[in-house]
Amino acid sequence: MTDTVDTQQAADLLGVQVSTIYAYVSRGILSPLPGAARSRGSRFDRSAVLALVQRRKRTRAGTFEVSIQTSITRIDPAGRLFYRGHDAEQLAATSHFEDVAELLWGTDGCSVWPDAPDAVDPRTMLPGDRIRAAILASGVGRNDDFPTAARRSICAAVASLPTVGADSTGSIAQRLWPKLTAQQADRERLQALEAALVLLADHELATSTVVARATAGTRADPYHVLLAGAAALAGPAHGAASGAAYDALTGSAELHQVPAGFGHLVYRDTDPRFDALIARIEPWAPQVVRRVDDLTIAVRRAHGAAPNVDLALAALSVAADAQRWAGEVIFLIARMAGLAAHGMEELGQPLRFRPQADYVGGTGTGAAGPT
């Protein structure tokens, strides 16, 4: 006799919501046994459910498997689409787009939508945004491969920044230095900047890299792949983290919690990139490195956290008399090299970045809501 489980038991075995089991059935991932009484619900072959458990656990080349809980959108077993419990087809017949957008955002629907946003003066743009705009502009009307797109974007990114020092030509590091600081570039300073660019060129599957690969998987052109990754790097928990580390190093941040520049998901102790970059800064800015050491000791004593590369970027910015945003700019320009490499690699894969939704919101079936 076949060992069977009901829908709830199948969900428990798989570690998902019952609604996900319904989705598996509708997509042919899991098949109910025939002959079960409707009043008692579906039953499944336990061995088939356990086999699916193993498939979900197994890491397979060329696949991207993840389940994300969401209360925003649900697709029912019949394929009907619901936005926060409201039937999307009925909303399409009764509601304005603006109202549905407010529904998705969970707002009260009373906000004013402007006729047109104010135009942006490029002179007021932050350096990181200048770079993102330069990436997009670099690709207009072009059909370049990834290396060509990356070269153009990196050079355009550097050129987009205002010059504060003596203008320079040559390597990317030589061109970038006077965009960051009025200090005279010498061999040791350029070596430190070069080291930062190299150490930050790639870092396995960081968030921005996953974003870029997902974009490349849709066969977007290389410039948009770079732009997607660059957008993720704008976050203060990623590419812009060195700004908060700069605050901690210059004494303008409280240390009652672990400051930016300490701790890393990948490293249990000190980020090796931190040590490598600090070693390049110490010969010409020992006083800054002493401040880094003092901060590191204080944070280790208070929180047990080790320094990461964002603190080293902040140290480079302070040592160079650069502004708070300099570390983000270095990170962004450097990481375009890795983003392009991952984009190239992703082209060899099918469209695969489609995580499974585990719906945890309401289950209403009507269209009551925005009109």
From TrEMBL:
Top EC class for this record: transferase
PROSITE patterns noted in UniProt: CITRATE_SYNTHASE
Gene Ontology CC terms: cytosol
Gene Ontology molecular-function annotations: citrate synthase activity
Keyword annotations: Transferase
Keyword match Cell wall biogenesis/degradation: no
Annotated EC: 2.3.3.16
SUPFAM superfamilies linked: Citrate synthase (SSF48256), Putative DNA-binding domain (SSF46955)
Pathway listed: Carbohydrate metabolism; tricarboxylic acid cycle
Keyword Transferase included in the entry's annotation: yes
Any one of the GO BP annotations: carbohydrate metabolic process
Domain Helix-turn-helix positions: 6-56
Family, per entry: Belongs to the citrate synthase family.
Annotated protein name in UniProt: citrate synthase (unknown stereospecificity)
Organism annotation: Branchiibius hedensis
Lineage of origin: Bacteria, Bacillati, Actinomycetota, Actinomycetes, Micrococcales
